[in-house]
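Quick review question:
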């Protein structure tokens, strides 16, 4: 994966969120494995677009709240549309209510 080694820690501020399941690092598009969010660019209806925008906003919020994101190169079992694929790990604490 150009620009991204097998395992790489990336500052959250260096990550640009494209949509709810795609990020850019140094200009390279990376599809996040295990994330499957509604479309924002090819939405089939207004409701899908709204949900896609909410997913994008949430991923931006999550990434902006951490100093470092660990990305791991991996093969995606699903279609990544020609994008590089990465698994993402952070020190996030998930709260359940």
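Suggested answer, residue by residue:
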């Amino acid at each position: 994966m150009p620009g991204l080694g097998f395992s790489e820690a990336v500052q959250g501020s260096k990550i640009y969120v494209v949509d709810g399941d795609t990020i850019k690092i140094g200009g390279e598009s990376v599809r996040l494995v295990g994330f499957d969010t509604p479309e924002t660019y090819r939405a089939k209806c207004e409701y899908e677009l709204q949900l896609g925008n909410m997913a994008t906003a949430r991923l931006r919020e999550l990434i902006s709240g951490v100093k470092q994101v660990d990305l791991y190169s991996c093969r995606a079992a699903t279609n990544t549309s020609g994008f590089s694929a990465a698994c993402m790990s952070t020190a996030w604490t998930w709260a359940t209510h």
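Why it works: The helical segments are 46-64. Residues 67 and 77 are 29 Å apart (CA to CA).
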